[in-house]
Amino acid sequence: MSSPESSASGFKAFLKKKNVELSFRMYAIDALGAMAHGLFASLLIGTIMKTIGAKLDIDILVTMGGYAAAATGAAMAVAIGYALKSPPLVLFSLVAVGGAANSLGGAGGPLAVLVITIGAAEIGKLISKETKVDIIVTPFVTICAGAILALWLAPSIGKAASSVGQLIMWATELRPVLMGMTVAVVIGIALTLPISSAAICAALGITGLAGGAALAGCCAQMVGFAVISFRENRWGGLLSQGIGTSMLQMPNIVRQPRIWIAPIVASAITGPLATAFFQLKMNGPAVASGMGTCGLVGPIGVYTGWLSDIASGEKNAITGLDWVALILVCFVLPAIFSLLVNHYLKKVGWVKEGDMKLS
Q: Using CA atoms, how far apart are residues 359 and 355, in angstroms rounded to an integer?
């Protein structure tokens, strides 16, 4: 009869054989970083394509962007599975798992995909090549495990993410300064976290001054990280974060949370400036409020709102001050405030060179 020690040792050997590594780094850093790439290669690039196509009247670009966005859950799941070194049959089966998790997760779709895909992938890896009918058993087990987890967990994850939206709705009832600060910080953080700030804004219809604050917060995160990490990541990092997604920094934030201070402080400053001083309103599509500078969708959304306001008679014309406010809130001020705060953090030793290096 085997002892508990030998059984534990045998189980550890089995996990090692199956390449299952139960580690914080693997799940919270490697998988999370891969998921950000999957999100960019689907939803974000798709939104960029659709926005450009709509503005230039290129219907085929709009169609292609729609196809890319529709594959969001699958793209994120495959990226996570790849980071977890999943065998081919497990990796391919995660397409269905990601689609289910993202669909059922609602505004918390990306977070649901992360949690559920990790579980499904690890279960699939354990069963992979353990039977003579692997081509049937492995996909069956992986998809069933993922679907069950999605049905069980994804709606709750979605509700938790939507609660962030309720906080935003509460903040819009407050005075512009406090509302601008609260909305900018919350939505900005949501943009960088593995939850969909764009989906939250779209689901709640966040436009007007609240939309302007949300845009300011998102821009502060994206432009902020892009400029303060320029030494580590150069032009590639500037573009991938500045017009891509600040979510690329999540693995580094997990390692060193203090790098997040500068963009958050920038959000807290530019949000109130957008609402109380510049009166910047997002009267374009609500989803643009949560996109920031991703593909310039946020600024383009403000411009679209201006055109709509002119057509409805609410606005006479687009003025020079409108453009100044948009450029300052979306690009100039986030860069300046983030650089100043990050310089201080480096001076006191809270942030070090290399902390924001993208893999």
A: 11
CB atoms within 10 A of CB 341: 20
Which residues have C-beta within 8 Å of that of residue 18, sequence separation ≥ 6? Answer: 125, 126, 128
User: Which amino acid is residue 154, in one-letter code?
Assistant: A
Q: Are 90 and 124 in contact (CB under 8 A)?
A: yes
pLDDT in tens, 121-180: 999 999 998 899 999 999 999 999 999 999 999 999 888 877 776 777 678 667 789 989
pTM of the model: 0.73
Which contacts qualify for 138-142: CB closer than 8 Å, 24 or more apart? 138/87, 138/89, 138/90, 138/93, 139/89, 139/92, 139/93, 142/89, 142/90, 142/93, 142/94, 142/97
Q: Pick from 76-85, 103-112, 170-179 the range whose average pLDDT is largest.
A: 76-85
Indicate whether 356 pLDDT > 70.
yes
Neighbours of 262 (CB within 10 A): 27
Tokens of 108: 């918390």
107 vs 346: which has the higher pLDDT: 346
Look at the chain and count its residues. 359
